[in-house]
Structure formats: C-alpha cells, structure tokens
Design goal:
Layout: E1 4-9, E2 14-18, E3 21-25, H1 29-41, E4 49-53, E5 56-60, E6 65-66, H2 78-92, H3 104-120, H4 126-136, E7 146-148, E8 157-160, E9 163-167, E10 174-176, H5 178-186, H6 193-200, H7 206-226, H8 237-243
Antiparallel strand pairs: 1-2, 2-3, 3-5, 4-5, 6-8, 7-10, 8-9
Helix pairs in contact: 2-6, 3-4, 3-7, 4-7, 5-7, 7-8
Length: 244
C-alpha cells in the first residue's frame, strides 16, 4: 500500500503525494480556480487534473525530475535548462489570462515593509539589505504584461533528459513581468542563467533578472521564517542577498 508523503505543508495549504497522485489541500478556492484554468490555457505540458472536490485538487504525477531544488546543485543538463527557457518563452507569448498580478505599487510597498522588518529584527546586515533594496528597485518600473507562472522555481519545472515534461503549481499565474518568471527560475541556480536565456531568446534585460533575484529574496524572508522554512540555509534567499 502506498505511503502518504508530505511534499509541503504550512498554515495556508499542503501538498501530499500518494503513489502517482498529488493531493493539494487549499481552502482558498480562488487559487485552485486559477491553477485549474491556467493549466487549460498554457502551451506547455502540465499535470493532469484527476478530480476536484474542494478543498482538495488531485493531480497526476509528472514524468521526470525537477530541474533543480533550492539549496542543492542541479544535476539537469544545460540543454534541459535551455529547454526550460524555451518553454517559458512559449508561455510568455500566450494570450494574456484574465487575472492581473500585483501592480508595481504593491511590490514597492511590500519591499519597504520587508526591508524595515529585516533591519528592525537584525536579520541581515544593514549593508546587505540596503544594497539589495537598491538593486530590487530597478524591477519596480512599468512593464509590458505577459502570461506569467508567478512562482516558477526550478522545482516546479520537470524534465526527462533534455526535454521539459511538465510545469506544476499554477496558482499564482497572472498577467505580470516576464523578468519575474526568469528571475524565479534562476534564483537559486544563477550558473544556468545563460542557458535559460539561450533557450528563451532575445528581448531580456539581465539586470532586471538580477533585480528580481533581490526583490523576491527580500520579500520572501519573513514569510519563509514564519511558515517553518529556513531562508538562511545554504543556497537559499539570504545567501542570494549576501552574494548580490
């Protein structure tokens, strides 16, 4: 009999695996609605929806292995990272979804709030926070909206050999900045940035990707700490900020 594996669990939602079935438990039905609809719209492989009974969504496992995981070296080939870049390009060229992501003003307000928290609680040296706040501010400008995944960590992209077999976790899909997805994908694996961009193609500002590295890392620290994760683990968000 298959065992129940806890993939991720915190106060907002949980994902369990039983054999080849993933069970996502989320009381926020808006997120589940977005995830299910987004997977019907995108031109990239996704998980198959098996059934849905709120607050649970059942998905079939995707073939292959994750492109990478935060805090661990990626064993995927450079060709696989380039294929991921090409898949992201296909997504960004898809017709816009009806959901709009956070506006620039919201990101700006959250950046100030999170930096104040980091400094007030002496979480990171002031020089690290200020340096990254300055770099992150470059991302806070008007952008041409595209269809973004919204949470495109390397662990959400699955590959088999050099091919992308599926992209999972679409609950934050929306209209947004293309550089946000590219920044998320390479956040913990900057050594593969050139490969991702080779697959993605022209029209990318590398400095804006680096700005999103800083922005995402500054915004995520408190949430991760409050939900049982360690942003200070090797290769995680605080390492990204120190390396900026």
């Amino acid at each position: 009999m298959d065992e129940v594996e806890v993939v991720i669990a915190h106060a907002e939602r949980a994902t369990l695996r039983v054999g080849d079935v993933f069970l996502k438990v989320d009381p926020d039905q808006r997120r589940i609605d977005v995830e299910v609809e987004a997977m019907t719209l995108v031109p990239v492989p996704t998980a198959e929806v098996l059934w849905r009974k709120p607050p649970v969504l059942a998905l079939a496992a995707v073939k292959g292995k994750a492109l990478g995981r935060t805090g661990h070296p990626s064993v995927a080939s450079r060709a696989a990272w380039a294929a991921a870049g090409a898949a992201v390009r296909a997504l960004h060229e898809t017709a816009l979804p009806r959901w709009v992501g956070p506006p620039v003003e919201q990101y700006a307000a959250e950046l100030e709030s999170e930096c104040e928290w980091l400094l007030a609680n002496d979480v990171l040296p002031a020089a690290v926070v200020e340096r990254n706040r300055e770099r992150a501010s470059a991302a806070l400008r008007p952008w041409k909206p595209v269809f973004v995944h919204g949470d495109l960590h390397a662990s959400h992209v699955f590959v088999d050999g050099d091919a992308v077999t599926g992209i999972i976790d679409w609950s934050e899909a929306a209209q947004g900045d293309a550089h946000r997805d590219l920044g998320s994908l390479t956040l913990a694996h900057p050594e593969f940035l050139d490969d991702v961009l080779a697959g993605y193609g022209p029209g990318v500002d590398v400095e804006l990707i680096r700005a999103w590295w800083s922005l995402r890392s500054l915004l995520a620290g408190r949430w991760l700490a409050e939900h049982g994760f360690d942003p200070d683990a090797p290769g995680c968000e605080f390492d990204v900020l120190r390396a900026a």
